[in-house]
Amino acid sequence: MNSLIITSIEQGLIFAVLAMGIFITYKILDMADLSVEGTFPFGAFIFAKLVSTGVNPFVSTILAFGIGSLAGLMTAVLFIKLKIKPLLAGILTMTTLYSINLRINGKSNIPLFNFESVFDIGPALLILVVTVMAIKITLDQFLKTEIGYLLIATGDNESLVKSLGANSNKFKTIGLMLSNGLIAFSGALMAQYQGFADISMGTGIIVIGLASIIIGDTIKKDSSIFNSTTRAILGAIIYKIIGGIAIDLGLSPNDLKAISAIIVIIFIAYNNLASDFLASIKNKGEKKYANNTRIIKKVLQKH
Amino acid sequence: MLTIQGLSKKFYKSTENEIEVFNNFNLYIEENKCTAIIGPNGCGKSTLLNILAGSILPDSGRIILNGEDISNLSEENRSRLIGRVYQDPSMGVSPSLTILENMSLADKKGEKFTLRRLVKKNTIDKYVEILKSLDLGLEHKLNTKVKYLSGGQRQSLSLIMATMKHPDLLLLDEHTAALDPKTSYIIMEKTKELIDKYKITTIMISHNMKDAIRYSDRIIMLNKGKIVLDKPNKDTTEEELIEIYRTKLFEQIA
Protein backbone atom coordinates (compact mmCIF):
# COMPACT_ATOMS: atom_id res chain seq x y z
CA MET A 1 0.00 0.00 0.00
CA ASN A 2 2.81 2.36 0.96
CA SER A 3 4.72 1.83 -2.27
CA LEU A 4 1.45 2.22 -4.16
CA ILE A 5 0.96 5.67 -2.61
CA ILE A 6 4.52 6.69 -3.48
CA THR A 7 4.17 5.45 -7.06
CA SER A 8 0.87 7.31 -7.34
CA ILE A 9 2.47 10.52 -6.04
CA GLU A 10 5.41 10.16 -8.43
CA GLN A 11 3.14 9.59 -11.41
CA GLY A 12 0.88 12.36 -10.14
CA LEU A 13 3.85 14.74 -10.17
CA ILE A 14 4.64 13.79 -13.78
CA PHE A 15 1.01 14.43 -14.67
CA ALA A 16 1.17 17.69 -12.69
CA VAL A 17 3.44 19.09 -15.42
CA LEU A 18 0.86 17.95 -17.98
CA ALA A 19 -1.92 19.52 -15.93
CA MET A 20 -0.08 22.87 -15.76
CA GLY A 21 0.24 22.74 -19.55
CA ILE A 22 -3.45 22.00 -20.03
CA PHE A 23 -4.24 24.71 -17.45
CA ILE A 24 -2.73 27.32 -19.79
CA THR A 25 -5.00 26.47 -22.71
CA TYR A 26 -8.10 25.23 -20.92
CA LYS A 27 -8.26 27.74 -18.07
CA ILE A 28 -6.26 30.78 -19.17
CA LEU A 29 -6.99 30.85 -22.90
CA ASP A 30 -10.40 29.18 -22.47
CA MET A 31 -9.71 26.83 -25.34
CA ALA A 32 -9.91 23.03 -25.58
CA ASP A 33 -6.63 22.00 -27.22
CA LEU A 34 -6.90 18.32 -28.17
CA SER A 35 -3.38 18.18 -29.64
CA VAL A 36 -2.34 17.10 -26.12
CA GLU A 37 -2.96 13.46 -27.04
CA GLY A 38 -0.30 13.70 -29.72
CA THR A 39 2.05 16.04 -27.89
CA PHE A 40 2.48 13.81 -24.82
CA PRO A 41 3.91 10.83 -26.79
CA PHE A 42 5.67 13.36 -29.07
CA GLY A 43 7.72 14.47 -26.05
CA ALA A 44 8.43 10.85 -25.17
CA PHE A 45 9.58 9.99 -28.71
CA ILE A 46 11.72 13.11 -29.03
CA PHE A 47 13.39 12.16 -25.77
CA ALA A 48 13.87 8.54 -26.93
CA LYS A 49 15.42 9.68 -30.19
CA LEU A 50 17.79 12.14 -28.53
CA VAL A 51 18.88 9.92 -25.64
CA SER A 52 19.45 6.97 -27.97
CA THR A 53 21.77 9.09 -30.10
CA GLY A 54 23.83 9.89 -27.01
CA VAL A 55 22.41 13.22 -25.87
CA ASN A 56 22.44 13.82 -22.11
CA PRO A 57 19.02 12.92 -20.58
CA PHE A 58 18.64 16.33 -18.92
CA VAL A 59 19.33 18.12 -22.19
CA SER A 60 17.01 15.70 -24.00
CA THR A 61 14.16 16.37 -21.58
CA ILE A 62 14.57 20.13 -21.96
CA LEU A 63 14.77 19.78 -25.75
CA ALA A 64 11.52 17.79 -25.60
CA PHE A 65 9.98 20.95 -24.14
CA GLY A 66 11.40 23.13 -26.92
CA ILE A 67 10.51 20.84 -29.81
CA GLY A 68 7.16 19.97 -28.20
CA SER A 69 6.24 23.65 -28.20
CA LEU A 70 6.34 23.50 -32.01
CA ALA A 71 3.21 21.33 -31.85
CA GLY A 72 1.54 24.31 -30.16
CA LEU A 73 2.86 26.55 -32.91
CA MET A 74 1.25 24.29 -35.50
CA THR A 75 -2.14 24.46 -33.75
CA ALA A 76 -1.74 28.24 -33.46
CA VAL A 77 -1.01 28.62 -37.18
CA LEU A 78 -3.98 26.42 -38.14
CA PHE A 79 -6.23 28.31 -35.81
CA ILE A 80 -5.03 31.90 -36.27
CA LYS A 81 -3.70 32.06 -39.84
CA LEU A 82 -5.96 29.50 -41.49
CA LYS A 83 -8.96 30.30 -39.26
CA ILE A 84 -9.67 26.65 -38.44
CA LYS A 85 -11.75 26.27 -35.27
CA PRO A 86 -9.51 25.58 -32.23
CA LEU A 87 -11.10 22.19 -31.54
CA LEU A 88 -10.48 20.98 -35.09
CA ALA A 89 -7.03 22.62 -35.23
CA GLY A 90 -6.04 20.60 -32.15
CA ILE A 91 -7.40 17.37 -33.63
CA LEU A 92 -5.50 17.99 -36.89
CA THR A 93 -2.26 18.57 -35.00
CA MET A 94 -2.88 15.44 -32.94
CA THR A 95 -3.50 13.32 -36.02
CA THR A 96 -0.41 14.68 -37.77
CA LEU A 97 1.68 14.02 -34.67
CA TYR A 98 0.59 10.37 -34.67
CA SER A 99 2.43 9.80 -37.94
CA ILE A 100 5.34 12.02 -36.91
CA ASN A 101 5.71 10.06 -33.67
CA LEU A 102 5.95 6.79 -35.61
CA ARG A 103 8.47 8.39 -37.97
CA ILE A 104 10.78 9.77 -35.28
CA ASN A 105 12.19 6.39 -34.29
CA GLY A 106 10.62 4.26 -37.01
CA LYS A 107 8.62 2.16 -34.54
CA SER A 108 5.74 2.41 -32.11
CA ASN A 109 7.50 1.22 -28.96
CA ILE A 110 11.01 2.10 -27.83
CA PRO A 111 12.45 0.49 -24.69
CA LEU A 112 14.66 2.93 -22.77
CA PHE A 113 16.00 0.67 -20.00
CA ASN A 114 19.47 0.66 -21.52
CA PHE A 115 19.75 4.43 -21.65
CA GLU A 116 20.47 7.03 -19.03
CA SER A 117 17.57 8.91 -17.48
CA VAL A 118 17.13 11.93 -15.22
CA PHE A 119 16.09 9.52 -12.48
CA ASP A 120 19.62 8.04 -12.34
CA ILE A 121 20.91 10.80 -10.11
CA GLY A 122 18.70 10.24 -7.07
CA PRO A 123 15.31 9.21 -5.72
CA ALA A 124 12.58 9.76 -8.31
CA LEU A 125 10.24 11.43 -5.81
CA LEU A 126 12.81 14.08 -4.89
CA ILE A 127 13.74 14.80 -8.51
CA LEU A 128 10.08 15.14 -9.45
CA VAL A 129 9.22 17.38 -6.51
CA VAL A 130 12.11 19.72 -7.37
CA THR A 131 11.22 19.74 -11.09
CA VAL A 132 7.52 20.36 -10.52
CA MET A 133 8.19 23.12 -7.98
CA ALA A 134 10.66 24.80 -10.33
CA ILE A 135 8.12 24.75 -13.17
CA LYS A 136 5.32 25.95 -10.89
CA ILE A 137 7.35 28.88 -9.55
CA THR A 138 8.53 29.88 -13.03
CA LEU A 139 4.99 29.73 -14.40
CA ASP A 140 3.60 31.72 -11.45
CA GLN A 141 6.26 34.38 -11.91
CA PHE A 142 5.66 34.46 -15.66
CA LEU A 143 1.94 35.05 -15.13
CA LYS A 144 2.80 38.10 -13.01
CA THR A 145 4.76 39.77 -15.81
CA GLU A 146 3.29 42.21 -18.31
CA ILE A 147 3.22 39.49 -20.99
CA GLY A 148 1.74 37.00 -18.53
CA TYR A 149 -1.13 39.33 -17.68
CA LEU A 150 -1.82 39.90 -21.37
CA LEU A 151 -2.02 36.12 -21.77
CA ILE A 152 -4.69 36.03 -19.05
CA ALA A 153 -6.48 39.04 -20.54
CA THR A 154 -6.48 37.38 -23.99
CA GLY A 155 -8.52 34.47 -22.64
CA ASP A 156 -10.69 36.86 -20.68
CA ASN A 157 -11.49 39.66 -23.14
CA GLU A 158 -9.73 39.89 -26.45
CA SER A 159 -11.03 43.35 -27.30
CA LEU A 160 -9.34 44.73 -24.18
CA VAL A 161 -5.99 43.33 -25.34
CA LYS A 162 -6.44 44.97 -28.73
CA SER A 163 -7.45 48.23 -27.10
CA LEU A 164 -4.19 48.11 -25.14
CA GLY A 165 -2.34 48.13 -28.44
CA ALA A 166 -1.29 44.48 -28.26
CA ASN A 167 -1.86 41.68 -30.74
CA SER A 168 -3.99 39.05 -29.02
CA ASN A 169 -3.01 36.39 -31.57
CA LYS A 170 0.57 36.64 -30.40
CA PHE A 171 -0.48 35.73 -26.88
CA LYS A 172 -2.62 32.82 -28.04
CA THR A 173 0.46 31.50 -29.85
CA ILE A 174 2.66 31.97 -26.77
CA GLY A 175 0.06 30.19 -24.63
CA LEU A 176 -0.31 27.25 -27.02
CA MET A 177 3.45 26.83 -27.38
CA LEU A 178 4.06 27.01 -23.65
CA SER A 179 1.26 24.54 -23.01
CA ASN A 180 2.43 22.00 -25.58
CA GLY A 181 6.03 22.40 -24.44
CA LEU A 182 5.05 21.46 -20.88
CA ILE A 183 2.96 18.52 -22.11
CA ALA A 184 5.87 17.18 -24.19
CA PHE A 185 8.15 17.68 -21.17
CA SER A 186 5.71 15.64 -19.10
CA GLY A 187 5.72 12.94 -21.81
CA ALA A 188 9.54 12.82 -21.74
CA LEU A 189 9.48 12.39 -17.95
CA MET A 190 6.89 9.62 -18.22
CA ALA A 191 8.95 7.75 -20.82
CA GLN A 192 11.96 7.78 -18.47
CA TYR A 193 9.87 6.86 -15.46
CA GLN A 194 8.20 3.82 -17.05
CA GLY A 195 11.28 2.91 -19.11
CA PHE A 196 9.76 3.08 -22.58
CA ALA A 197 8.05 5.38 -25.06
CA ASP A 198 4.88 4.06 -26.63
CA ILE A 199 2.57 5.41 -29.33
CA SER A 200 -0.51 4.70 -27.20
CA MET A 201 0.70 6.59 -24.13
CA GLY A 202 -1.21 9.69 -25.20
CA THR A 203 -4.60 8.01 -25.44
CA GLY A 204 -7.02 9.50 -22.93
CA ILE A 205 -4.35 11.81 -21.57
CA ILE A 206 -6.52 14.90 -22.02
CA VAL A 207 -9.05 13.41 -19.61
CA ILE A 208 -6.29 12.98 -17.02
CA GLY A 209 -5.24 16.59 -17.48
CA LEU A 210 -8.78 17.93 -17.26
CA ALA A 211 -9.52 15.65 -14.30
CA SER A 212 -6.50 17.06 -12.49
CA ILE A 213 -7.61 20.65 -13.06
CA ILE A 214 -11.22 19.95 -12.13
CA ILE A 215 -10.25 18.02 -8.99
CA GLY A 216 -7.83 20.81 -8.12
CA ASP A 217 -10.59 23.38 -8.44
CA THR A 218 -12.71 21.44 -5.98
CA ILE A 219 -10.12 21.64 -3.18
CA LYS A 220 -11.19 24.32 -0.72
CA LYS A 221 -12.89 26.29 -3.47
CA ASP A 222 -13.04 29.64 -1.69
CA SER A 223 -9.56 29.55 -0.25
CA SER A 224 -7.07 31.87 -1.86
CA ILE A 225 -4.08 30.04 -0.34
CA PHE A 226 -4.01 27.61 -3.24
CA ASN A 227 -3.41 29.37 -6.51
CA SER A 228 -4.32 27.83 -9.86
CA THR A 229 -1.01 26.07 -10.47
CA THR A 230 -0.96 24.57 -6.96
CA ARG A 231 -4.49 23.32 -7.57
CA ALA A 232 -3.47 21.70 -10.87
CA ILE A 233 -0.56 19.92 -9.15
CA LEU A 234 -2.62 18.73 -6.17
CA GLY A 235 -5.39 17.69 -8.55
CA ALA A 236 -3.02 15.52 -10.57
CA ILE A 237 -1.66 13.82 -7.44
CA ILE A 238 -5.13 13.21 -5.97
CA TYR A 239 -6.32 11.86 -9.31
CA LYS A 240 -3.43 9.38 -9.44
CA ILE A 241 -3.98 8.30 -5.83
CA ILE A 242 -7.67 7.66 -6.52
CA GLY A 243 -6.67 5.62 -9.59
CA GLY A 244 -4.04 3.74 -7.56
CA ILE A 245 -6.55 2.86 -4.86
CA ALA A 246 -9.00 1.69 -7.54
CA ILE A 247 -6.42 -0.74 -8.90
CA ASP A 248 -5.44 -1.80 -5.39
CA LEU A 249 -9.07 -2.66 -4.74
CA GLY A 250 -8.82 -5.14 -7.59
CA LEU A 251 -10.11 -3.18 -10.57
CA SER A 252 -8.51 -4.20 -13.84
CA PRO A 253 -6.06 -1.71 -15.42
CA ASN A 254 -8.21 -2.12 -18.53
CA ASP A 255 -10.98 -0.28 -16.72
CA LEU A 256 -8.73 2.68 -15.89
CA LYS A 257 -9.87 4.88 -18.77
CA ALA A 258 -13.53 4.45 -17.83
CA ILE A 259 -12.62 5.17 -14.22
CA SER A 260 -10.86 8.37 -15.31
CA ALA A 261 -13.99 9.48 -17.11
CA ILE A 262 -16.17 8.61 -14.11
CA ILE A 263 -13.85 10.57 -11.78
CA VAL A 264 -14.17 13.60 -14.08
CA ILE A 265 -17.96 13.25 -14.20
CA ILE A 266 -18.24 12.95 -10.40
CA PHE A 267 -16.07 16.00 -9.74
CA ILE A 268 -17.78 18.17 -12.37
CA ALA A 269 -21.19 17.12 -11.05
CA TYR A 270 -20.01 17.95 -7.54
CA ASN A 271 -18.74 21.37 -8.67
CA ASN A 272 -21.96 22.14 -10.51
CA LEU A 273 -24.54 20.71 -8.16
CA ALA A 274 -23.04 20.76 -4.68
CA SER A 275 -23.89 24.40 -3.99
CA ASP A 276 -27.54 23.86 -5.00
CA PHE A 277 -27.70 20.72 -2.90
CA LEU A 278 -26.13 22.43 0.12
CA ALA A 279 -28.49 25.36 -0.28
CA SER A 280 -31.51 23.06 -0.27
CA ILE A 281 -30.25 21.34 2.90
CA LYS A 282 -29.69 24.73 4.48
CA ASN A 283 -33.22 25.81 3.56
CA LYS A 284 -34.68 22.70 5.13
CA GLY A 285 -32.52 23.32 8.17
CA GLU A 286 -33.79 26.87 8.47
CA LYS A 287 -37.39 25.72 8.21
CA LYS A 288 -36.77 23.23 10.96
CA TYR A 289 -35.16 25.95 13.07
CA ALA A 290 -38.14 28.22 12.46
CA ASN A 291 -40.54 25.43 13.45
CA ASN A 292 -38.55 24.74 16.59
CA THR A 293 -38.53 28.40 17.64
CA ARG A 294 -42.27 28.55 17.07
CA ILE A 295 -42.83 25.52 19.28
CA ILE A 296 -40.53 26.95 21.96
CA LYS A 297 -42.47 30.23 21.90
CA LYS A 298 -45.76 28.36 22.30
CA VAL A 299 -44.35 26.42 25.21
CA LEU A 300 -43.09 29.63 26.79
CA GLN A 301 -46.47 31.31 26.30
CA LYS A 302 -48.20 28.47 28.11
CA HIS A 303 -46.07 29.02 31.17
CA MET B 1 -9.44 67.15 -35.15
CA LEU B 2 -10.78 64.23 -37.10
CA THR B 3 -11.53 64.14 -40.80
CA ILE B 4 -13.40 61.35 -42.54
CA GLN B 5 -13.14 61.57 -46.32
CA GLY B 6 -15.04 59.63 -48.97
CA LEU B 7 -15.95 56.75 -46.69
CA SER B 8 -17.80 53.86 -48.33
CA LYS B 9 -18.82 50.58 -46.80
CA LYS B 10 -21.01 47.74 -47.96
CA PHE B 11 -21.81 44.57 -46.03
CA TYR B 12 -22.48 41.16 -47.63
CA LYS B 13 -21.01 42.45 -50.87
CA SER B 14 -22.25 40.95 -54.13
CA THR B 15 -24.91 38.84 -52.47
CA GLU B 16 -28.62 39.49 -52.57
CA ASN B 17 -28.39 40.71 -48.97
CA GLU B 18 -25.95 43.47 -49.85
CA ILE B 19 -26.38 46.51 -47.61
CA GLU B 20 -24.77 49.81 -48.39
CA VAL B 21 -24.11 51.60 -45.11
CA PHE B 22 -21.96 54.49 -46.35
CA ASN B 23 -21.45 55.89 -49.82
CA ASN B 24 -18.89 58.68 -50.04
CA PHE B 25 -19.50 59.83 -46.47
CA ASN B 26 -17.60 62.90 -45.24
CA LEU B 27 -17.37 64.32 -41.75
CA TYR B 28 -15.17 66.84 -40.00
CA ILE B 29 -14.97 66.84 -36.22
CA GLU B 30 -13.34 69.67 -34.30
CA GLU B 31 -10.67 69.17 -31.70
CA ASN B 32 -11.63 68.99 -28.02
CA LYS B 33 -15.31 68.90 -28.81
CA CYS B 34 -17.82 66.25 -27.90
CA THR B 35 -19.97 65.22 -30.84
CA ALA B 36 -23.08 63.12 -30.33
CA ILE B 37 -24.21 60.85 -33.12
CA ILE B 38 -27.82 59.80 -32.97
CA GLY B 39 -30.13 58.04 -35.37
CA PRO B 40 -32.36 55.00 -35.73
CA ASN B 41 -31.04 51.45 -35.62
CA GLY B 42 -29.20 50.53 -38.78
CA CYS B 43 -28.37 54.15 -39.63
CA GLY B 44 -24.66 53.41 -39.54
CA LYS B 45 -23.55 54.96 -36.26
CA SER B 46 -22.08 51.78 -34.80
CA THR B 47 -20.45 50.92 -38.12
CA LEU B 48 -18.90 54.39 -38.15
CA LEU B 49 -17.47 53.88 -34.67
CA ASN B 50 -16.15 50.43 -35.59
CA ILE B 51 -14.51 51.84 -38.72
CA LEU B 52 -12.88 54.63 -36.68
CA ALA B 53 -11.61 52.13 -34.11
CA GLY B 54 -10.32 49.85 -36.86
CA SER B 55 -12.40 46.80 -35.96
CA ILE B 56 -14.18 47.05 -39.34
CA LEU B 57 -12.29 47.93 -42.50
CA PRO B 58 -14.03 50.33 -44.90
CA ASP B 59 -14.21 49.61 -48.65
CA SER B 60 -12.69 53.01 -49.34
CA GLY B 61 -12.10 56.35 -47.67
CA ARG B 62 -9.56 58.05 -45.47
CA ILE B 63 -9.52 58.77 -41.76
CA ILE B 64 -7.19 61.53 -40.63
CA LEU B 65 -6.69 62.10 -36.92
CA ASN B 66 -4.69 65.20 -35.91
CA GLY B 67 -2.97 65.29 -39.28
CA GLU B 68 -2.04 61.59 -39.27
CA ASP B 69 -3.67 59.27 -41.80
CA ILE B 70 -4.72 56.29 -39.69
CA SER B 71 -6.78 54.51 -42.38
CA ASN B 72 -4.19 51.77 -42.79
CA LEU B 73 -3.35 51.23 -39.13
CA SER B 74 -4.54 47.99 -37.52
CA GLU B 75 -6.95 48.09 -34.61
CA GLU B 76 -4.18 47.54 -32.06
CA ASN B 77 -1.96 50.21 -33.59
CA ARG B 78 -4.78 52.73 -33.57
CA SER B 79 -5.48 52.07 -29.93
CA ARG B 80 -2.57 54.23 -28.81
CA LEU B 81 -4.53 57.20 -30.23
CA ILE B 82 -8.06 56.03 -29.56
CA GLY B 83 -9.88 55.05 -26.38
CA ARG B 84 -13.21 53.28 -26.48
CA VAL B 85 -15.95 52.49 -24.00
CA TYR B 86 -18.50 49.89 -25.04
CA GLN B 87 -22.15 49.41 -24.16
CA ASP B 88 -21.36 46.16 -22.35
CA PRO B 89 -19.47 47.09 -19.16
CA SER B 90 -17.43 43.85 -19.39
CA MET B 91 -15.97 44.73 -22.79
CA GLY B 92 -13.58 47.33 -21.44
CA VAL B 93 -12.12 45.29 -18.58
CA SER B 94 -10.61 41.90 -17.88
CA PRO B 95 -13.22 40.39 -15.51
CA SER B 96 -11.00 37.73 -13.90
CA LEU B 97 -8.31 40.25 -12.95
CA THR B 98 -8.47 42.67 -10.02
CA ILE B 99 -9.06 46.42 -10.26
CA LEU B 100 -5.38 47.01 -9.56
CA GLU B 101 -4.30 44.58 -12.29
CA ASN B 102 -6.76 46.08 -14.78
CA MET B 103 -5.54 49.60 -14.11
CA SER B 104 -1.93 48.51 -14.35
CA LEU B 105 -2.69 47.02 -17.77
CA ALA B 106 -4.43 50.20 -18.92
CA ASP B 107 -1.44 52.21 -17.71
CA LYS B 108 0.77 50.29 -20.17
CA LYS B 109 -1.56 50.95 -23.12
CA GLY B 110 0.33 51.48 -26.35
CA GLU B 111 3.67 50.64 -24.73
CA LYS B 112 5.75 47.54 -25.19
CA PHE B 113 4.77 44.63 -22.95
CA THR B 114 7.82 42.86 -21.52
CA LEU B 115 8.80 40.25 -18.96
CA ARG B 116 8.89 42.84 -16.20
CA ARG B 117 6.40 42.64 -13.35
CA LEU B 118 3.14 44.32 -14.28
CA VAL B 119 1.88 45.52 -10.91
CA LYS B 120 4.20 48.07 -9.37
CA LYS B 121 3.83 49.24 -5.78
CA ASN B 122 4.74 52.86 -6.55
CA THR B 123 1.78 53.35 -8.90
CA ILE B 124 -0.87 52.31 -6.39
CA ASP B 125 -1.19 55.82 -4.90
CA LYS B 126 -1.89 57.23 -8.33
CA TYR B 127 -4.63 54.64 -8.98
CA VAL B 128 -6.20 55.23 -5.57
CA GLU B 129 -6.33 58.96 -6.35
CA ILE B 130 -8.07 58.31 -9.69
CA LEU B 131 -10.56 55.89 -8.13
CA LYS B 132 -11.31 58.27 -5.25
CA SER B 133 -12.40 60.92 -7.74
CA LEU B 134 -15.14 58.53 -8.92
CA ASP B 135 -16.64 58.51 -5.45
CA LEU B 136 -17.83 54.92 -5.73
CA GLY B 137 -15.60 53.48 -3.02
CA LEU B 138 -13.62 51.48 -5.57
CA GLU B 139 -10.36 52.62 -3.97
CA HIS B 140 -11.07 50.15 -1.14
CA LYS B 141 -11.53 47.29 -3.60
CA LEU B 142 -8.19 47.38 -5.43
CA ASN B 143 -7.72 43.64 -4.97
CA THR B 144 -11.29 42.65 -5.86
CA LYS B 145 -11.75 40.81 -9.12
CA VAL B 146 -13.65 42.99 -11.57
CA LYS B 147 -16.25 40.29 -12.24
CA TYR B 148 -17.58 40.84 -8.71
CA LEU B 149 -18.28 44.54 -9.35
CA SER B 150 -21.67 45.91 -10.40
CA GLY B 151 -22.28 46.99 -13.99
CA GLY B 152 -21.96 50.65 -13.04
CA GLN B 153 -18.71 50.12 -11.16
CA ARG B 154 -17.31 48.10 -14.06
CA GLN B 155 -18.31 50.79 -16.54
CA SER B 156 -16.68 53.49 -14.40
CA LEU B 157 -13.52 51.43 -14.41
CA SER B 158 -13.76 50.96 -18.21
CA LEU B 159 -14.10 54.72 -18.61
CA ILE B 160 -11.08 55.38 -16.41
CA MET B 161 -9.05 52.73 -18.23
CA ALA B 162 -9.97 54.12 -21.65
CA THR B 163 -8.99 57.68 -20.73
CA MET B 164 -6.01 57.00 -18.45
CA LYS B 165 -3.44 57.66 -21.17
CA HIS B 166 -5.33 60.70 -22.53
CA PRO B 167 -6.18 59.41 -26.02
CA ASP B 168 -6.56 61.84 -28.95
CA LEU B 169 -9.99 60.45 -29.66
CA LEU B 170 -12.53 58.86 -27.32
CA LEU B 171 -15.33 56.70 -28.72
CA LEU B 172 -18.35 56.19 -26.49
CA ASP B 173 -20.53 53.42 -27.85
CA GLU B 174 -23.86 53.92 -26.01
CA HIS B 175 -21.81 53.48 -22.90
CA THR B 176 -24.60 54.19 -20.43
CA ALA B 177 -27.36 52.28 -22.24
CA ALA B 178 -27.05 49.20 -20.03
CA LEU B 179 -27.11 51.14 -16.76
CA ASP B 180 -29.91 52.32 -14.47
CA PRO B 181 -30.81 56.06 -14.65
CA LYS B 182 -28.87 57.04 -11.53
CA THR B 183 -25.68 55.18 -12.46
CA SER B 184 -26.06 56.39 -16.02
CA TYR B 185 -26.14 59.97 -14.69
CA ILE B 186 -23.01 59.43 -12.56
CA ILE B 187 -21.12 57.94 -15.52
CA MET B 188 -22.19 60.74 -17.88
CA GLU B 189 -21.11 63.41 -15.41
CA LYS B 190 -17.79 61.65 -14.89
CA THR B 191 -17.32 61.33 -18.65
CA LYS B 192 -17.94 65.04 -19.12
CA GLU B 193 -15.49 65.87 -16.33
CA LEU B 194 -12.76 63.64 -17.80
CA ILE B 195 -13.07 64.85 -21.39
CA ASP B 196 -13.07 68.47 -20.25
CA LYS B 197 -10.10 67.94 -17.94
CA TYR B 198 -7.92 66.08 -20.44
CA LYS B 199 -9.34 67.89 -23.50
CA ILE B 200 -10.21 64.74 -25.42
CA THR B 201 -12.00 64.88 -28.75
CA THR B 202 -15.03 62.66 -28.21
CA ILE B 203 -17.63 60.95 -30.36
CA MET B 204 -20.60 59.65 -28.46
CA ILE B 205 -23.33 57.39 -29.77
CA SER B 206 -26.54 57.66 -27.84
CA HIS B 207 -30.20 56.83 -28.07
CA ASN B 208 -30.87 59.20 -25.21
CA MET B 209 -31.74 62.60 -26.73
CA LYS B 210 -31.50 64.40 -23.38
CA ASP B 211 -27.98 63.11 -22.74
CA ALA B 212 -26.94 63.88 -26.31
CA ILE B 213 -28.03 67.51 -26.00
CA ARG B 214 -26.82 67.97 -22.46
CA TYR B 215 -23.35 66.47 -22.70
CA SER B 216 -22.18 67.17 -26.23
CA ASP B 217 -21.30 70.31 -28.17
CA ARG B 218 -22.70 69.17 -31.47
CA ILE B 219 -25.50 66.84 -32.53
CA ILE B 220 -25.37 64.84 -35.73
CA MET B 221 -28.27 62.68 -36.81
CA LEU B 222 -27.63 59.90 -39.28
CA ASN B 223 -30.15 58.07 -41.37
CA LYS B 224 -29.20 55.39 -43.90
CA GLY B 225 -25.60 56.54 -43.82
CA LYS B 226 -26.39 60.19 -44.53
CA ILE B 227 -26.28 63.18 -42.22
CA VAL B 228 -29.83 64.47 -41.84
CA LEU B 229 -29.14 66.96 -39.06
CA ASP B 230 -25.97 68.71 -37.89
CA LYS B 231 -26.40 71.41 -35.25
CA PRO B 232 -24.70 72.81 -32.15
CA ASN B 233 -26.33 71.40 -29.02
CA LYS B 234 -27.47 74.88 -27.92
CA ASP B 235 -29.78 75.18 -30.92
CA THR B 236 -31.24 71.72 -30.58
CA THR B 237 -34.24 70.65 -28.55
CA GLU B 238 -35.39 67.19 -27.64
CA GLU B 239 -38.79 67.83 -29.26
CA GLU B 240 -37.11 68.76 -32.53
CA LEU B 241 -35.11 65.53 -32.57
CA ILE B 242 -38.10 63.38 -31.73
CA GLU B 243 -40.07 65.13 -34.46
CA ILE B 244 -37.40 64.27 -37.01
CA TYR B 245 -37.38 60.67 -35.80
CA ARG B 246 -41.14 60.53 -36.25
CA THR B 247 -41.25 62.05 -39.75
CA LYS B 248 -38.29 59.98 -40.94
CA LEU B 249 -39.94 56.88 -39.62
CA PHE B 250 -43.14 57.71 -41.51
CA GLU B 251 -41.15 58.28 -44.67
CA GLN B 252 -39.59 54.84 -44.34
CA ILE B 253 -42.91 53.13 -43.81
CA ALA B 254 -44.52 54.99 -46.72
Architecture overview:
Chain A has 303 residues and is mainly alpha-helical. Chain A has one domain (2-302): ABC transporter involved in vitamin B12 uptake, BtuC. In chain A, 78% of the residues lie in helices and 2% in strands. Chain A contains 11 helices and 2 strands; from the N terminus they run ααααβααααβααα. A two-stranded antiparallel sheet of chain A has the order 1-2. The longest helix of chain A has 47 residues, at 256-302. The mean pLDDT of chain A is 90. The N and C termini of chain B lie far apart (39 Å). The longest helix of chain B is centred in the last third of the chain and has 18 residues, at 181-198. Helix content of chain B is 33%, strand content 24%. Chain B has 8 helices and 10 strands. Chain B has a domain at 2-89 and 166-253: Rossmann fold. In chain B, the strands form 2 sheets. Chain B has a 6-stranded mixed sheet with strand order 6-7-8-3-9-10, sandwiched between helices. Chain B has 254 residues and is of the alpha/beta class. The model of chain B has no long low-confidence stretch (mean pLDDT 89). The radius of gyration of chain B is 19 Å and the shape is globular. In chain B, α3 packs parallel to α5 (151-163) and α5 (151-163) runs parallel beside α6. Chain A binds chain B through residues 142, 144-150, 152-153, 156-157, 159-167, and chain B through 55, 75-77, 79-80, 83-84, 86, 90-97, 101, 104-106, 108-111, 113-119, 162.
Task: Tell me the layout of helices and strands.
The complex is a heterodimer of chains A (about 300) and B (about 250).
Chain A: H1 2-28, H2 36-52, H3 57-81, H4 86-105, E1 109-111, H5 124-143, H6 146-156, H7 158-163, H8 168-194, E2 196-198, H9 205-218, H10 228-248, H11 256-302
Antiparallel strand pairs in A: 1-2
Helix pairs in contact in A: 1-5, 1-8, 1-9, 1-10, 2-3, 2-4, 2-8, 3-4, 3-8, 6-8, 9-10, 9-11, 10-11
Chain B: E1 2-11, E2 19-29, E3 34-38, H1 45-53, E4 60-65, E5 68-69, H2 75-78, E6 82-85, H3 99-107, H4 124-132, H5 151-163, E7 169-173, H6 181-198, E8 201-205, H7 209-215, E9 218-223, E10 226-232, H8 238-253
Parallel strand pairs in B: 3-8, 3-9, 6-7, 7-8
Antiparallel strand pairs in B: 1-2, 1-4, 4-5, 9-10
Helix pairs in contact in B: 3-5, 5-6
